[in-house]
Specification:
By secondary structure, the protein is an alpha/beta fold. The chain has two domains: 27-84 and 400-447, Urease, subunit C, domain 1 (Roll); 87-388, Metal-dependent hydrolases (TIM Barrel, Alpha-Beta Barrel), CATH 3.20.20. Helix content is 31%, strand content 19%. It contains 15 helices and 18 strands. The protein is globular. The termini are far apart.
């Protein structure tokens, strides 16, 4: 080869990823912080957290650090601040309908707003799989994404919302949104769903108890989680729980446990909702305790989606005004029974808002549902990690877990809105300083004459609405 020959470029040399996880061997130390570890325990003051690349290496009292502990580690000056696990929104729909530009903006706001993981509860997984990959490798800023592929009865797929997320194919025949019945080859259907990048099957609508149990068993056999509505008409809450699903969504649907008539389809739930609410509120407060005890014994997690009631009241006649009372009673009894509750939203605030919707959910759980801030934080951290099925890697601040945490200026146990006083979010060891986000938003607003983003992103809502599959 002559001196003038061009040297070949290695085909596997990756382009630099601006938001990639920190490399192993790159250490950092966050000293003299007040630690909230995500378990619901008390604040521990004067703590230090050491990270090695994308993982937490040690969590120790700051006074016990030695020079060898911090040798070579980058010191991060957050003394006096409060450090807690990264927040997890356990119910999102960023790909319903698919809008890549908007989804990237919302994911960016989520991670700079303290959210390090989300459950994507069905949608166009073609788009979402690529967004999840881009956030994971660091092409874009965003939370880790855990996706569900949807299964429902064939009669559900005349719903126009399913068309939005299967453009270019047939609703019900897409591997991320499948119509199933007693004749479906479930091992093949679950395998097809896995091939979309989904980690869970979402059991959605127009399915009976026996078929839900078969889907759940097959999904678990193939290593997938199963997430479901609390009512999957004609299957009712007790049927869904007995099937062995891992998480049930929408606490207010547990009122159907006492309903006189079973809605036979998803579409008919709306007309039965007011009656179900009335019967529930007229019954003794302990009337659903047996169901809740079964959930606790099985480890079934409740994804409450509480603030959805305030943002999108049900359109069912007579139901909207009863919904908050139903929700409050369900959550009170669930907490009394020891059911694990995670924090999911099922909507996003408009892109021009400063923070993602999870902050509104957490405030609603405290203010309207009466849950203490420490339990609400656990719902958005440790319980959220259990809901996505990754509690071994995230949800608490302890050695061996991912270096996913958020650092805020004041104690969120005193005021849940202190979670909005973000200094930095650390995701897989990479820092996303809030000042960078605020500065970028200011620059963008200036460049566009004050218009910071697109219209309202509240593209998903309550199950009883005419919006996208929730």
């Amino acid at each position: 080869m002559s001196d003038t020959d061009e040297q070949p470029v290695a085909a596997n040399d990756p382009a630099p990823m601006p938001f990639a996880a920190a490399e192993p061997g790159r250490a950092a130390v966050y000293r003299d912080v007040s630690l909230i570890d995500g378990t619901g325990g008390p604040v521990r003051h004067g703590m230090a957290v050491l990270t090695d690349g994308p993982t937490i290496k040690a969590v120790v009292p700051d006074a016990e650090l030695t020079s060898s502990d911090v040798s070579g580690a980058e010191p991060v000056d957050v003394r006096g601040a409060f450090l807690l696990p990264g927040l997890i929104d356990a119910h999102q729909h960023l790909s319903t309908p698919p809008n890549r530009e908007q989804a990237e903006r919302l994911m960016r706001r989520q991670v700079y707003g303290g959210v390090t993981a989300i459950r994507e509860m069905a949608g166009d997984l073609r788009q979402m799989a690529d967004l999840a990959r881009a956030a994971l490798v660091g092409e874009i800023p965003g939370p880790d994404v855990h996706c569900a592929a949807l299964m429902a009865g064939p009669s559900f797929f005349d719903d126009p919302r399913t068309w939005q997320v299967t453009q270019g194919t047939t609703p019900g025949a897409a591997p991320w949104m499948q119509a199933v019945d007693d004749d479906t080859d479930l091992p093949l259907a679950v395998a097809a769903a896995r091939g979309t990048g989904a980690t869970a099957i979402k059991v959605y609508a127009n399915l009976d108890a026996a078929l839900i149990a078969r889907i759940t068993a097959e999904a678990h056999r193939q290593g997938m989680h199963v997430w479901a509505h609390a009512a999957v008409s004609p299957a009712m809450p007790a049927d869904v729980v007995a099937a062995g699903v891992d998480v049930v969504s929408h606490a207010h649907y547990l009122a159907f446990h006492l309903a006189a008539d079973r809605p036979v389809t998803y579409a008919s739930q709306r007309e039965h909702l007011a009656d179900a609410y009335e019967r529930f509120l007229a019954a003794p407060v302990h009337a659903i305790d047996g169901l809740l005890d079964d959930m606790r014994r099985r480890g079934t997690i409740l994804d409450a989606t509480a603030s959805l009631m305030a943002v999108f009241p049900s359109g069912s006649p007579g139901a909207a005004e009863l919904g908050p009372d139903v929700l409050k009673r369900v959550i009170d009894r669930a907490r009394r029974a020891g059911v694990t509750i995670c924090a999911g939203t099922d909507y996003e605030t408009p892109p021009g808002d400063d923070f993602p919707s999870l902050h509104d959910e957490l405030r609603y759980l405290v203010d309207a549902m009466g849950i203490p801030p420490r339990d609400v934080i656990r719902a958005a951290t440790q319980a959220g990690a259990s809901a996505v099925g990754d509690e071994a890697a995230m949800g608490t601040v302890q050695p061996g877990r991912l270096a996913n945490f958020v650092i805020v200026a004041d104690d969120p146990y005193d005021d849940i809105d202190h979670l909005r006083r973000i200094i930095t979010t650390v995701k897989r060891g990479h820092r996303h300083d809030r000042a960078d986000y605020d500065r970028a938003d200011y620059d963008r607003a200036t460049d566009h004459g004050g218009a910071t983003d697109a219209p309202d992103a509240r593209t998903d809502a309550a199950d009883t609405s005419e919006r996208a599959p929730a």
